[in-house]
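for the recovery benchmark. tokens below, seq after
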């Protein structure tokens, strides 16, 4: 079973054990996300992600957070090409870009630990970016990676606060979205969106607070993003038609 949606064999990055480890992350090495139809999204990513994907809120035991929908069926990411690359001219969420690394909390320890998925096929000792130098010290690549992971972690904490604030204001409501796929209807559910009627009914001081914090812009980006479900529907429709054509050609031959 995969942990954290895409990770299979997470281990703590070790200065001695992984001394010679290199990371090769080519454009065609995103196949690990092929079966992930939604992924965590930082609110700071909304201005770009909202141009391509429906960005909605979900609730868990830990509270509310934000996700980008990248597939309309279970275990299917419509943005991964057959060669393992992400569809061109589409935003790649940081959730994907951080792989095969992730920050993990250690019980009883406030310090975060970098973990790596040893199942990633871009790990070897021959090519790619080195994590440690000959003396076992962090390379500039690892230092940049640490900063990226920490920034992402902090962005996700801010996203949880943003989403929970909207929930506390009573703005998040369960909603279904319908889309057409080659003439057939498909309904998405299990998520929440901002209710525009309730948003307009907020007191002026609450709206001003959202505006001053930058959250109001995020809210509008989220609302605009909901129209992107039709883009996913069209992509799935093309995929189904292509599969039918391929099956028909195989039968005739």
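predicted aa per position
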């Amino acid at each position: 079973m995969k942990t954290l949606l895409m990770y299979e064999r997470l281990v703590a990055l070790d200065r001695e054990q992984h001394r010679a480890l290199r990371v090769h992350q080519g454009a065609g090495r995103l196949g690990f996300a092929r079966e992930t139809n939604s992924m965590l999204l930082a609110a700071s990513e909304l201005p770009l992600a909202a141009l391509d994907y429906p960005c909605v809120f979900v609730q868990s035991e830990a509270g509310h957070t934000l996700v980008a929908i990248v597939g309309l069926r279970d275990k299917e990411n419509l943005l991964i090409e057959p060669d393992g690359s992400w569809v061109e001219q589409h935003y790649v969420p940081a959730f994907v870009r951080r792989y095969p690394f992730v920050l993990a909390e250690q019980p009883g320890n406030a310090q975060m630990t970098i973990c790596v998925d040893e199942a990633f096929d871009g790990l070897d000792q021959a090519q790619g970016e080195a994590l440690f130098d000959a003396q076992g010290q962090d390379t500039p690549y690892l230092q940049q990676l640490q900063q990226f992971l920490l920034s992402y972690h902090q962005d996700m904490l801010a996203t949880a606060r943003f989403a929970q604030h909207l929930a506390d204001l009573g703005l998040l409501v369960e909603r279904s979205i319908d889309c057409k796929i080659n003439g057939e209807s498909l309904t998405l559910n299990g998520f929440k969106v901002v209710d525009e009627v309730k948003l307009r009914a907020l007191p002026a001081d609450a709206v001003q607070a959202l505006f001053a914090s930058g959250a109001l812009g995020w809210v509008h980006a989220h609302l605009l993003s909901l129209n992107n479900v039709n883009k996913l529907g069209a992509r799935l429709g093309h995929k189904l038609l292509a599969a039918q054509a391929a099956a028909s050609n195989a039968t005739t031959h």
